[in-house]
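Need the bound structure for uridine-5'-diphosphate, inputs here:
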Amino acid sequence: SRSSNADFPGIKERTLVAVKPDGVQRRLIGEIIKRFEQRGFRLVGLKMLQAPEKLLAQHYVSLQKKPFYPSLLHYMTSGPVVAMVWEGHNVVRSSRMLVGDTDPAGAAPGTIRGDLSVHISRNVVHASDSVQGAEKEISLWFQSAELIDWEGCDHNNIYHL
Ligand code: UDP
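Answer from helper R.:
Posting the output first, comments after.
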């Protein structure tokens, strides 16, 4: 129930996941959503957008000095992205595991990148790398009114409260 959720704040953890332009072009939106949905996480925000360069500059602020930064921005603005917010227990860490290593060559089979991509510069998906980073990224990509706090009827089968 909603009241018992409040006793387990970890269940309310949220992360930003984005299907990058190559993932959209390659018709992988459904496949990527499916993996988070079937794992048991709860989708609380979803939109397709042509990401503005200003947003991406803030999103990738820590990579500004990297040699690949200009090509990363070019890639991320090459077409629409699908931005999502997923919620659940340890969702930040679990999402990074679902997504796999940044370089698909080192990403384990079974992960999204390990199953669906080949090259580091076209690795189909983004997921926040820390709880703090997730909070920052969610506030960059979504307005609070775009996040829907709905009750899952399967909640008591996914969590033991
Ligand atoms: N990237 C790249 N070349 C590199 C490293 C990173 O093109 O050598 C891109 C890649 O798309 C990666 C993104 O920059 O997903 C962000 O890099 P980060 O190290 O934050 O990896 P992530 O958190 O996405 O796994």
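Comments: DSSP finds nine helices and four strands in the chain. The first strand starts at residue 14 and ends at 19.
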